[in-house]
Amino acid sequence: MPAKDKPANSNKPCPVCGKPPAPSFTPFCSARCADVDLHRWLGGVYRVETDEPAAEPLRRDDD
Ligand SMILES: [Zn+2]
Q: What is the pLDDT, as a whole number, of residue 26?
């Protein structure tokens, strides 16, 4: 069995939570973390989850 079996990056922690990655979800530790990372990317396209308040229409009682 050759020693060059594992990839060099197998020891990198999950970029989402920092836990050791699972082989099935590398570089993530779980499907959840992979999903979280995916949503981070997609979030910038059509679904932004930020702390910024939604644009509310100004209510003028000055009429
Ligand atoms: Zn994780």
A: 92
pTM of the model: 0.50
Gap between the Cα atoms of 40 and 52, Å rounded: 16
Query: What is the chain's length?
Result: 63
Mark 7-35 as b/e (b = at least 16 C-beta within 10 Å). Answer: eeeeeeebebeeeebeeeeebbbbeebbe
**Which tokens go with 2?**
């050759």
| Cα 31 to middle of ligand 1, angstroms | 8
Q: How far is the CA of 34 from the centre of ligand 1 (A)?
A: 7
